[in-house]
Amino acid sequence: MAGNIIKRQGLNYLLGVCVPCAKQNAAKIRVKISDFDAHLLMYFNKYEFIYADDPEKRCKTGDTVLIQSLPRKLTRLITHKVVDVIYPLGDITDPITGKKVVAGKYRENIEKDAELYGNLESMYKYEKTPKRGITEGKRDFTAEETYMKYSDDPKDYDPYAVNPS
């Protein structure tokens, strides 16, 4: 009778940053975990890498994503799935107010300060910038397939190689 009892596993949600991955239809996510040291009575950051199923290729390198654990493993490595891209790389939104943030200041406050002190021609125009992905293949190579490079030879430069150290 004890063998008939099915254990229910809760689905866990984690927040992490997408890093380069060479696996097909999967994303490698770096999740920060706080590790408690009982001797110092302090928490220290520890990073764990999790592979998540991403068949639509929604997340790119540098994006902050929300992942959910799967009820069963897809493969030996893939144990989670990508639920949503929370913050694309370089476009940060304050979660409480919903306003765009640049280096600790709201964008609208930066624009108001510029109006008070005078607009400069060299000022960056956030509303005129295209969304991420317009420079794919020209300056943005995050969509290209990457691989691990274990030798550091300055003569052998490859922008798609990732140094594991």
TrEMBL record:
Keyword Ribosomal protein: yes
GO terms assigned for molecular function: structural constituent of ribosome
GO BP: mitochondrial translation
Residues forming coiled coils: none
Keyword terms: Ribonucleoprotein, Ribosomal protein
Keyword hit for Lyase: no
Any single Gene Ontology cellular-component annotation: mitochondrial small ribosomal subunit
Protein's recorded name: 28S ribosomal protein S17, mitochondrial
